[in-house]
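Q: For a teaching session next week I want to show students how multiple molecules come together into a single three-dimensional assembly. I've collected the sequence lines for a complex. Could you give me the predicted structure tokens for the whole thing so I can convert them for display?
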Amino acid sequence: MSGQRGEKAFVPVLPRLEVAGVDAWMVRLFDRIDEANMPWITALLRRCEAAFGEALVDLVPSYTTLLVHYDPWRLTPGEARSRLGAVLADLEPDEEGGLGEGASGNVKELEVWYDDSVGPELALLQQESGLSREAVIEAHSGHEYRVFALGFAPGFAFMGSLPDELVLPRLDTPRKRVPAGSVAVANRQTSAYPRVSPGGWNLIGRTSARLFDRDREGFSLLRVGDRVRFVAVDRDRFEAAGGDTSPVEEPDSKGKTSNGKSA
Amino acid sequence: MSVAGKGEKVQLRVERAGPLALLQDAGRFGVRRLGVTQGGPADLHGWAWANHLLGNAWGAAALEITFGGLSLIAEGETSLALAGADLEATLDDEPVEPWSRFELRAGQRLRFGSPRQGLRAYLAVPGGFLADPVLGSVSSVVREGLGGHDGRGGKLQKDDTLIFQGESRKSRDLPRPPPDEERPDYIRPPRLALVPGAQVADFDGTSLFEVFNRGWQVDDRTDRMGVRLTGPVLKCAVTSMISEGIGLGAVQVPPDGQPIVLLNDRQTIGGYPRLGALTPLACSRLAQCLPGHDIHFRAQGVNAAQAEHRRFLACFRTG
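A: Of course. Below is the structure for the complete assembly, covering every listed component.
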């Protein structure tokens, strides 16, 4: 899935416009997931903001595409299409290693308390990878990730790509209630749940970061294209930063691994 | 949006909340890149007419009443307008015409029963309901906890109080109720306009024939996120894709071959193949279908579909 980083002359393989309704075009730039896609996607997003101005309704960037939702009262499909054509004709990627679309600086760091009480699948990940607990934490926190897309819930960032040894399928039975801040992995991706919600990803820890805050400028801590690093912290530091230490509740028969080790 | 008069007079009090009554303005835009859904009225057509009947500007917040059951008491004298579904509305036990404007005096009770035609009624008030916008909109999205009269995405609850933005105007200055042809028949099975696109070419020939030539039934798993349909099993060469942005009305087909039409509170991205997207007015009409209703699809090119949508907008939008 994920290509090699640092490949030379990385360019969109298929700039293609697809009808997505009476007021939207789908711009398809790539046909596979790659961290190197993102500087192109964020550049396209910014260029569309400038090119459409008042006629822009919304933009939805994702792994390989940008959905451009324009005001049908102001633009016909043909007019919108020619604006996109002009943007695509001389599109340059944002600087590699640069900012995501939120443009707030360097790599964003999320402090994580990796613990069985808040990350019941930490043990499963050890078992499946054959790594020690420390090595799993090191592998997860030692890697820099890219935000590919936000979705599922406000502020939920799909980040990748995970090192091979941390790849784990989603849970067979999703949890009805995943606590806010839960840091999780599924397949080649990792994320953190901004608020309590159902969820099927494997929980390995919890962050004290406020991922989505309606009173903050920009609302979401993470933006598409951001580079993100997880930083392992101990329980004291996690609590001092306002982290919630209550263990993941396992109401059904599940109840594996979620007891005993939290203190 | 004017905030003058905030904290002023309460005009309506909720006596009984019913199953689902939500404040909806035009929707929440510009934040889908953050995973925040669009929201807004499931039936844009009915919502637009309710506001229009009071001379409200495009985007004013109205109440979307699903299935009825709501009872409101007036705290002062006011004009109101009703459009969309016929949910057996009564004013002090006298029937209120759907698609009409009417006056309410202090102490009078506006009550909704159950669906006679359609599923969602829209109640507009002078200037729109007053609430603090959250992420640029007062549209209420329960799942996300955003918007609404309480700012937390909540549906109306007993004893909630509602405030208006504006004053009632003289009815001679106000638009006429819609002509008959603008009032949908919510009982007759609709032919919904679908603009083909996305992965339509990856569906097999038989499936495409069936999409447009067979009847589909509205499943009981239907809400503001989407409407599931049951009918022939559709086959697509693609079963799952890299997730991408999803527009209003997108018709996605998961591996079980039964389409889901995605509505206002849909997730922002998704990875199932799609046949294309319903037009906004087709979404409006679908949002009035109760489980068990039959529908049909018809294909429409994007230019013709947009021209039709612009004719609709021309009645309501000025700027």
